[in-house]
Amino acid sequence: MIEMQDVYKTYPNGVVALNGINVRIKQGEFVYVVGPSGAGKSTFIKMMYREEKPTSGTIMVNGVNLAKLKDSKVPLLRRHIGVVFQDFKLLPKLNVYENVAFALEVIEESPKVIRKKVMEVLDLVGLKHKIRSYPNELSGGEQQRVSIARSIVNSPKIVIADEPTGNLDPETSWGIVELFEKINDRGTTIVMATHNKEIVNATRRRVIAIENGKIVRDEAKGEYGYDASYV
Amino acid sequence: MTLHTFKRHVRESIKSLGRNGWMTFASASAVTVTLLLVGVFFAVMFNINHFAKKVENDVEIRVHIELTADSRQKDALRRQIEAIPNVKEVRYSSKDEELKRLIKSMGDEGSSFRLFEQDNPLSDVYVVKAAHPQDTVKVAKQIETLPFVHKVNYGQGTVEKLFDALKVARNVGLVLILGLLFTAMFLISNTIKITIFARRREIEIMRLVGATNGFIRWPFFLEGLWLGMLGALFPIAALSIVYYNVYQVYEQRVSLPFFELLPFSPFMWQLSALLLVIGAGIGIWGSVMSVRKFLKV
């Protein structure tokens, strides 16, 4: 569960990114975060996995206040949160299997467990037949599937995705969203920032619209859009 | 840390040496050049030190006893000398022994002194050694004040100058070595910084999936260690070969009586170990320093 209370964020250069955010995301929800570039969407997302710290306010994730979380405890938090990016962030010199296994090696799982879990998630994302391929041999959609596999391999309760379809064509994007829905069906909370109007409108999930550092709209079965005039 | 993890770190660090081939070469070369210079300095320094110790230990005070002193007065003088603090040993040398020594030290021309065997003009001598060579001058000054002392001889002036010169040589050497080591550390820290810069993506991903800083640091720590030790190999080999040959030539052809080189074994083993440790040290220091700024949360 994610809960933000009166979260403000001002960057050292004076830019106000978040201007009083209050939000509650329950376990198992699927949430789209929409808003124009520079509205604070990325900061909002980064707060959830403690890439940024709030200037003031509290952020509870899985019962931990991230505003007060010590730097040394951040790695432990990250092990319970999967993160997916627009640019996939795969290691080019590792193959598919190794890229996914990386997330488990880092938390010192035993090789036996690693093998089992990696094969499971690669099966889930439909890339079991490409485990020996390297990222540059894969299509964009396939690369994103690998990165999603990596984000869920240690069974996090929350997966946060920052424009995961930003670099993909519409058809491939649908495949990725369907994959997120599948993961969501297993009880994992999904928070996904996106500019993809078509997908948001078609899936009818909860939509949080952010503009000028504030939540301007929060609807249970929302549509894409953030402009005040649009609503 | 589990054994699996440790093995992974070792594997990763070695793989990384290969992947960053040219940077590995550059960093190791920086260590090599530095250690070559440092090694030469050390070799010279240790030998100077060795020489200095030998000279210092050879420094003795020759106390010439008044010709008029009888044996009881000589004994009294001996006790008085022995009572001076920092006196290690007092040896008596009669005037006949002194003459023999003189004749011997003169070599072929010494035989002309044999004339004096009939009527020896030399005086009996107490040879005094100070516990610490540095105390020689002080002890000598005190002995001078004692009764029945005709003259005190310890190479006045020469000894002081020699000690001063050795002190300067040691200090200059030490400063030069420290300077070289610092230069090497910065060179290595910079080269490793570049390899890490190329791998900041890897570090970023490690942090995203929940790797602790310690976990991230390990492979770099080991990589620095390998780099340093790799860089130390060539200087160790080169210095060993050169020193071996210099030692052989010196011992066989030159060999001055007052100056001896430290024998190849164990000196070269000790120097090699020292260079290896220094290499590893600067390698580790360089990599740990440069990875640090990428680990700020």
What does this structure look like?
The complex is a heterodimer of chains A (231) and B (297). Chain A has 231 residues and is an alpha/beta fold. Chain A has two domains: 1-79 and 155-223, 3-Layer(aba) Sandwich (Rossmann fold), CATH 3.40.50.300; 88-154, no CATH class. Helices cover 32% and strands 26% of the residues of chain A. In chain A, strands 6-7-8-3-9-10 form a six-stranded mixed sheet, sandwiched between helices. A four-stranded antiparallel sheet of chain A has the order 2-1-4-5, with helices on one face. In chain A, a hairpin with a 5-residue loop joins strand 1 (2-10) and strand 2. The model of chain A has no long low-confidence stretch (mean pLDDT 92). Chain B is of the alpha+beta class and 297 residues long. Chain B has two domains: 3-55 and 161-295, no CATH class; 60-154, Alpha-Beta Plaits, CATH 3.30.70.3040. Helices cover 71% and strands 8% of the residues of chain B. The A-B interface holds A 49-50, 71-72, 74-79, 83, 89, 91, 93, 102-103, 105-108, 110-111, 150, 154 and B 1-2, 4-5, 8, 19, 201-202, 204-213, 215, 297.
Low-confidence stretches of chain B: none
How much of the sequence lies in strands of chain B comes to 5-15%
Q: What radius of gyration of chain A results from the CA coordinates?
A: 17 Å
Q: Choose one word for the global shape of chain A.
A: globular
Total of domains of chain B: 2
Helix/strand order of chain B, N-terminal first: HHEHEHEHEHHHH
Please give the largest β-sheet of chain A.
6 strands, mixed
- CATH H-level name of the largest domain in chain A... which superfamily? P-loop containing nucleotide triphosphate hydrolases
**Helical segment count of chain A:** 7
CATH architecture of the largest domain in chain A: 3-Layer(aba) Sandwich
Number of separate strands of chain A: 10
DSSP helical segment count of chain B: 9
Task: Name the pair of protein chains with the most residues at their interface, and give those residue counts.
Answer: A-B, 24 and 20 residues
Mean pLDDT of chain B: 83
- Quickly give the structural class of chain B: alpha+beta
- Average of the residue pLDDT scores of chain A: 92
The SSE string of chain A, one letter per element, is EEEHEEHEHHHEHEHEE
Main sheet: strand order of chain A: 6-7-8-3-9-10
Gap between N and C termini of chain B, in Å?
22 Å
- Strand-residue proportion of chain A: 25-35%
Function (chain B): Part of the ABC transporter FtsEX involved in asymmetric cellular division facilitating the initiation of sporulation.
InterPro entries (chain B): ABC3_permease_C (IPR003838), FtsX (IPR004513), FtsX_ECD (IPR040690), FtsX_firmicutes-type (IPR058204)
Main location (chain B): membrane
Domain ABC3 transporter permease C-terminal (chain B): 175-284
